[in-house]
Amino acid sequence: MFKLMVSCLALLSLTPAIAQEKTVMVGGAAMYPSKNIVENAVNSKDHTTLVAAVKAGELVETLSGAGPFTVFAPTNKAFDKLPAGTVETLVKPENKGTLQGILTYHVVPGRLSADDLMKKIKADGGQTTLTTAAGSTLTASMKGKKVVIMDANGGTSTVTTADVFQSNGVIHVVDGVLLPK
Known about the structure:
Elements: H1 2-14, E1 24-26, E2 29-31, H2 37-41, H3 48-56, H4 60-63, E3 69-74, H5 76-80, H6 86-90, H7 96-104, E4 107-109, H8 114-123, E5 127-131, E6 137-143, E7 146-150, E8 156-166, E9 169-174
Parallel strand pairs: 3-9
Antiparallel strand pairs: 1-2, 3-4, 5-6, 6-7, 7-8, 8-9
């Protein structure tokens, strides 16, 4: 019995700290707060299009950086809502600048939790403006208990999974692709 307890304790001491972190499941994968945005996103089966776009846009290094960043991360289904052929066209090397503009439009400098966003929305009278890494703006508001993000064209995207904390920021999973003017 004693040997069994010692063996169990030895196994527990070998268990990495990462296994004890509070995680959120996204796309069938645990998102670890000790990993950065890219390290986590590559494991989400719901974000394969986004990951491919980030790679094609040569933004992996940026989103692996210190940040902090708030990322509104569209799912594969969100990208599927775009007109046929849009994603395939955007990931072509000659369209890298446009792709980077769209991707950085989903990134807000700083770490804004859902609670931070809701407080800003309430303090600003029902909606608040967020300045993106692309230098454009998004508008955040509430629809019931959900945060809704509106792009410059009036398109909206709802946060479906909030507060996926990363070592260099936070991801909020959204159901639509946000497009700059």
